[in-house]
Amino acid sequence: MSTAPILAVTGNQAVAMAMKQIDPDLVAAYPITPQTDVVQQFSEFVADGLVNTEFVTVESEHSAMSACVGSASTGARTMTATSSAGFALMWEMLYIAASMRVPIVMTTVNRALSGPINIHCDHSDTMGGRDTGWMQIYNEDAQEAYDATIMGFPIAEHKDVRLPLMNMYDGFIISGAIGPLQALDDEQVKQFIGEAPTYPGLLDSEHPITVGPFDGLHGYYFEAKMTQQQAMDNALGVIQETYDRFAALTGRQYQHLMKYKMDDADIAIVVANSAAGNTRNVVDALRAEGIKAGAIKLRTFRPFPAAEYAEALAGCKAVGVMDRADSFGALGGPLYLEILATLYQYGASPKVGNFIYGLGGREIYPHDIERAFRMLKDAADGAELPKSRVYLNAKGA
Amino acid sequence: MATKLSPKIYVERKDRLSGGHRLCAGCGASVVVRNVLMGAKDYPVVVGAATGCLEVSTSLYPYTSWKDSYIHTAFENAAATVSGAEAAFRSLKKQGKIDKDYKFVAFGGDGGTYDIGLQSLSGALERGHDFVYVCYDNGAYMNTGFQRSGSTPLGAWTTTTPTGKVQPGKLQQRKNLTQIAAAHNIPYVAQASIHNFRDLISKAEVAFETEGPAVLVVLSTCPRGWRAEPSQSVEMARMMVQSCYWPLYEVIDGDYVINFDPKDKKIDVADWMKLQGRFSHLFKPGNENVVERLQTNVDREWDRLKKLASLSAGE
Prior knowledge:
heterodimer, A: about 400 residues, alpha/beta, Rossmann fold, seven-stranded mixed beta sheet, six-stranded mixed beta sheet, about 40% helix, B: Rossmann fold, eight-stranded mixed beta sheet, 12 helices
């Protein structure tokens, strides 16, 4: 167990601190609410000479990700941070970064996408980016965001992975609110992440390489995409190994999915990020009533640990999936679709409901989560769950 | 300032772009690349390219024409991509993680430079990266089939400014990228042309030796998009310079220097327009005024450039 002092920091401060300790070779970033503080704080470290990093103050997020790809293609350790519209502006380059297999580590502070323009938290940004080829790890609080940032490079740079990785946490709720943090000391971070591995790069004039070539009509695009999926498959193991190695250092053990009172659960909710805390509280309250409730907090979303979800949920009679983003025109929200597909493929058949919550920063109260659980309880007892979305705390709903 | 180089450099300096690339006969892009890279002397170079003819024709996987390290990521971001590589180089060098010196250059067509890539170029210039940005400017989006760009001349036919019953080709004047680049107060900006190799190499030398950003805007040819004879490419470029449509000049720390003044040998724009099918409709009755407007614009810009040059010379 860590004996480090407990600091009181915002989520953004925690991540900026992790970035300082990682001391990447290059950061290229553009400020956007609610990520702004990460960039500002990192600028102060640069201004005070506390990091060796070249900080490239780009004129847009598109250029941020472009510069990151250029940088990482030299072998330089490269980081960035963004939110919402900035993430959307990077879109084209997110796919390119992943397909060029550059191990960039990015913090994405979750915020709604316009319009109407809204600066508050939901997961529309990164849930929309789930197919870009980036690894995605969702974090509940400042501690998790800090820890995930430290674990970023060992995962992304692993020879069997070599994919970019994004870490998420909730805008304002976590990014701007003060919470407890046990930080590692600089030396521990240095040792944990180690030296950047060398791979063919632009700054080796003895061995010049062409990166980002044209696929033309010769047709290796298809096979290149297959190798990206292979790397994602490999990442599942590498991420867990890294979680375990981190646990040996800090005592904080992460899993792809964090189960809470799931062993004998009849009903369960799957939820990502900051709403997980209230979900656990509601589980406790229901347990006190004798209802066998449980919760699963999403952490690793890409790659998706399907077998683990199937195993965790197989014994449930009813499962609720809480989505803080929607997939308009689809059967339901993105996490719901993923869980539904998983259960079908693995032959598990609990009833599954989709609860959309928190869009544009709408409050989610324990009683909203309790309402979802009560519906699951009824379903477990024989009632039907709605086949369409249930909106939690929507006005007039 | 660009100096007149000896032709000897052609045997002394290695060619950094391999033959066998897929660019068309008469295309100016490879001429631009070969000559610009000769200006880098013996330095190792990291080359970036925007999506475009040059990119698709030189990096057809699993082949590459590039003898230096090369990166392409997308269309609108060659300057941003190379700025990341250049900043990473500075970081690694400062930390003692590498010891060799490198030069950085980004190539983009006029689409990737004047239009979709203008923002990322402007940002990289303002941030002061030590790199050379080269626009090979053939005046339209040739790679996607000859659509208009911000560099397409007034009156030109393109596939998005077709000559119709009510519109005689492109209705607008081209913008002046060279002066937009110069307005960033960067140390070196120059205009060059594919017909004058030594002038181009000399300017590239200055650009590579300049600390900080440098921009070269090079007139390039596209026989396909111009509806012209490939064998006429170099001659057309020469005539476009001779008419002062494309003056050869430099902006050195804000001072304008004209490298070539045709004086009484200045020719009319119509002389080279007649060689290019993209202007053929303008020589039919009723469109004379478009040619006149283009001539007037060219003359006015040339006069303004001469004033800037004499102001810079303290005259």
